[in-house]
């Protein structure tokens, strides 16, 4: 994206304004078309239901008297008087067709069994299907509550599609006109911003060369003019700030030492809180959920109503999923194996679970000898492993990861290699400035232990993260 950084502000302003306008137009257009389509579908369905109810009210006697001619004449007159009606069928209570408006055979794809249709709250049934004559929305109204028969009305969606196409065309033309006006306005806006900014750039270049006596000309009183005034004041204050900066630098170093102590305590408190929450989730919440599942099981054995059993089974499945999520959360907050079996076993188990869940090939190469490290180093290595694998799965698009844990003279070394897209230059500083604590948080953790955190990355060639922590730093 180097070309984007080198692009003029003029093109950036135009591009942003027009892009946002197009995006807004697409969103509004999608919402409008979706809403319009739903409203038209509802109107078609309502008209079909009213027409079917009308025919059903007039046809009950004819169905009882087997007067199929009267039925045929009535449904054909009704169909001919309404443009959107594709067909009308009248069936008896068993589903046998008594009369229909098709000139020949029934179209292919037309459902015959009425049991396939769900009945809504208004008492009629609807179904949308495709036949050899196109998409059809069918409305079924029972005659005498289905005891005598059914009236089935197939509504065509051709007029709806034509109306939607017309509205889409009108919206497209309107969007083009608005974008043209926006381009003209953004061009003028870009000129108003760029011209004084060029003057400020020239003044900044003079300051860079050590000339603190340069001044910028102020022609307007708007935001840009006020910026030029502030710029002039800044030049005056730069002379005084040099001496002040030396004093502040000493204070900053002292505060950095305090910050290091506070961060160390913060990470310690955070891990203690995770451990407490993990224990509460496992000992209290999980036990309560398990008791709830036991009560549900007892209740299932006593229910005789099938619908109630289905609802209770669904509720029990939800509770099982919640219990599984709680246990998984408790383990991720503070894996018991880390305290019981050590860092190698904890990392191996986490890597195995992560690889199975994400479908990512992860290879782990632990040291041959047994590692003896304190709890804080173990926690740091484990959190870095978690954060690194999470970042790889979300952003790297890698297919394989190699993780090596080894012990060198007086140090523990963790190396994580992936074959993903890589990390761009300056990622740690950018993460810190944007309050994204992933990479920056890992670096902070390692530096608090007196260690070294580095990464090497090339675009399209993967990333290598290396963590080196002195084993004796806290002993």
Automatic annotation (TrEMBL):
Its EC number is 2.7.13.3. It is a multi-pass membrane protein. It is an enzyme of class 2 (transferase). Its cofactor is [4Fe-4S] cluster. Keywords: 4Fe-4S, ATP-binding, Cell membrane, Cytoplasm, Iron, Iron-sulfur, Kinase, Membrane, Metal-binding, Nucleotide-binding, Phosphoprotein, Transferase, Transmembrane, Transmembrane helix, Two-component regulatory system. One of its GO terms (molecular function) is ATP binding. PROSITE patterns: HAMP, HIS_KIN. Residues 191-243 form the HAMP domain. One of its GO terms (cellular component) is cytoplasm. Gene3D superfamilies: 1.20.5.1930, 6.10.340.10, Histidine kinase-like ATPase, C-terminal domain (3.30.565.10). It is found in: Cell membrane; Cytoplasm. It catalyses: ATP + protein L-histidine = ADP + protein N-phospho-L-histidine. It holds the Pfam family HATPase_c. Member of the two-component regulatory system NreB/NreC involved in the control of dissimilatory nitrate/nitrite reduction in response to oxygen. NreB functions as a direct oxygen sensor histidine kinase which is autophosphorylated, in the absence of oxygen, probably at the conserved histidine residue, and transfers its phosphate group probably to a conserved aspartate residue of NreC. NreB/NreC activates the expression of the nitrate (narGHJI) and nitrite (nir) reductase operons, as well as the putative nitrate transporter gene narT. This is Oxygen sensor histidine kinase NreB.
